[in-house]
Amino acid sequence: MAAVLDTVRAFFVPAAFVIDSETPADVVAREALLDRAMGADRRQKSSERIRHGRVPADGLALVARDRKGHVIGTVRLWNVEAGISRDGNAVDALLLGPLAVDGSHGGKGIGSALMRAALVEAKKRGHGAVLLVGDAAYYERFGFFAEKAQHLVMPGPFARARFLALELKAGWLQGVAGMVVASGRKLAQVPQRKAA
Questions:
Q1: For a surface tag, which of 73, 140, 178, 196 has the fewest beta carbons within 10 Å of its beta carbon?
Q2: Could you give all domains of the chain from N- to C-terminal order, each with its CATH number?
């Protein structure tokens, strides 16, 4: 009987978190979470320079919500040009980051769930590769490796061993070299009112 009750409870207990699309109402909570998780100097990183003034790639800004709907995790992917191919064409890719989970919810698989959801959605949308700067020991489980990004560079200082790539389409980064630059849509500029 106890096993039956456990099965019934598991069926009716809501999940500890859900992955959802980010909404404009999530901005303040997301930024506060990133400040806590990434530290005050997070805006000085090379990846942030690429993201500055841009909007995430369509459909690729995700959050994890707890049972009450609070944002407890975030991941975003950004359109970039990942160098030049051998035939001289710019190569489209995505830059992932930042990925962050509220410290009080660590160890629950939220980061992994966000990563998997983001990569599935990126592949579904036809993207060829994803780049990131992060801990290889963590991201290799998702298929990210430094060798795939070995001929690419980030603007400003970056740790070569932490610059990783995943091909969503086989051979997408083959023979590609050069600087990673932003290519996504820019944030709409709010007109400033002049004093009378």
A1: 196
A2: 13-182 (3.40.630.30)
